[in-house]
Design goal:
about 190 residues, extended
Length: about 190
């Protein structure tokens, strides 16, 4: 077993799961391409990859960097000690990225419904009017941001409690001068 981990780099279960995912992907690809016009599926995948890599990735990278710069998240520490010390406000940008990402994925997936670009036939199948999806998407987006804000407040509260030092009962004592138990008690008058 250890030799397998050394050669492969992971457990046999990992290899089994990877092989199963390749088999499932191959099956789905065969089923998709066995239709009447497989070139349309290939064109859609190539177009989606090009759209993502050439348009969307640079767009959300620039937007993320601009948000970090505008909101002061991308500060370079002056010294190595400041870089090593975690600050409670570091990483808060992820609490903005996650709801934006989830909301964007929903918008990209359901934009015809959200923008009321559905046919009458669709409303007959679902029995839903075509104008309810924008409001529902906005509510889901607001819920994503609210949950993210609650998670951020919880994190800030927890880190504040962890970083607060216990209250001092007196002036600091140099234990090297007095031994490990502290200073000798002063005689009372």
């Amino acid at each position: 077993m250890n030799r397998f981990r050394t050669v492969y780099g992971a457990s046999p279960l990992h290899l089994l799961l990877v092989l199963c995912s390749f088999a499932l992907t191959g099956y789905a690809g065969v089923r998709l391409l066995s239709g009447g016009e497989p070139w349309r599926i290939v064109a859609w995948f190539v177009g989606a990859a090009l759209l993502h890599d050439l348009v969307l990735l640079p767009l959300y990278t620039v937007t993320d960097r601009a948000a970090q710069t505008a909101l002061g998240e991308r500060r370079e520490p002056a010294d190595a000690e400041a870089a090593a010390a975690p600050h409670p406000s570091q990483g808060w940008i992820n609490y903005l990225r996650v709801p934006v990402f989830l909301s964007g994925v929903l918008l990209l997936t359901y934009f015809p419904l959200i923008l009321s670009r559905v046919s009458h036939r669709f409303t007959l199948y679902t029995t839903l009017p075509g104008d309810v999806f924008l409001g529902r998407w906005l509510l889901i987006t607001a819920a994503f941001f609210a949950l993210s804000a609650v998670a951020l407040l919880f994190r800030l509260r927890r880190s504040r409690h962890q970083t607060q030092p216990p209250p001092a009962s007196g002036p600091p004592v140099d234990l090297r001068k007095h031994g490990k138990d502290g200073p000798d008690p002063e005689p009372s008058p």
